[in-house]
Structure to design on (272 residues):
DNA sequence: CTAAACTTTGCAATGGCATTGCACTCCTTA
DNA sequence: TAAGGAGTGCAATGCCATTGCAAAGTTTAG
């Protein structure tokens, strides 16, 4: 397990500090998108700004992507190993309004519609709100 | 013109105060989604909280919908006259990363994808970022 | 082996935006 | 015309993202 995490970091040329290993592990275990506050709560004794900067580093190296799910707090979720956060990597996110958890629906790719003349798309953020399978 | 605005309010049973007429007019004229700060700047001498509450009233009566375009500030845009802000009324929003303006693409309805088993959709927020036709 | 240079971390602000309590004004209505 | 309710303005408050600065840790050059 630890090897998998370290490999993920190595793959993206990010130095494996203790904090980074922990944050990455959390994101892998939870298997959903987490906010800064949620992550902080999972650690108890880590500083929020350190986690923030850890996540920033992760973003810059395509380890995580940020999700704006309208909850007020930005959520962070793991990227796939071959992700470069391009339009093609964008996928639908699902916010359950009951349990308040946000999931990546990686198997549900976004179909970019035909835009009006002169509009060009660089990035898509498609959020669906509803009830998730465990809350049904 | 003024009649059109007053009618919109009457249609939704919202009393036409001076502030409400002004805010509604702004939203009609700009033909795009505006943030609270943008609206405040257009008036110079109106209080932000008054505009906020005006917009809240508008939302509650399906006159405007709020858009989370990831800019940090919520944007507000006019609803169609027959809108009840249901899933069917949801449409794509476009944020131009050059001029920072957000538009409703009402002619580009959202196609809701097939969700994984057990997931049910109630609301969709589909935002596309890119370059708009006037910035191309 | 050691000192300098750089990176990471923790603490303590700061700033932006949404939201609300309270008092004042205005408008409606009995 | 007085009372009640609706609308407005001002001044907080709170939440979240972000950053400056100094301490601690790590790497590198000599």
């Amino acid at each position: 397990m630890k090897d998998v995490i370290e490999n993920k970091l190595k793959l993206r040329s990010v130095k494996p500090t203790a904090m980074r290993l922990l944050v990455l592990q959390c994101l892998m275990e939870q298997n959903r998108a987490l906010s800064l506050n949620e992550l902080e709560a999972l650690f108890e004794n880590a500083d929020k700004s350190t986690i923030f900067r850890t996540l920033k580093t992760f973003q810059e190296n395509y380890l995580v992507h940020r999700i704006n799910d309208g909850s007020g707090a930005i959520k962070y979720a793991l990227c796939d190993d071959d992700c470069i956060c391009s339009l093609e990597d964008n996928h639908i996110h699902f916010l359950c309004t009951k349990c308040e958890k946000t999931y990546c629906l990686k198997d549900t790719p976004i179909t970019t519609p035909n835009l009006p003349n002169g509009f060009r798309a660089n990035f898509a953020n498609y959020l669906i709100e509803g009830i998730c399978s465990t809350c049904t």
Observations:
- DSSP finds four helices and six strands in chain A.
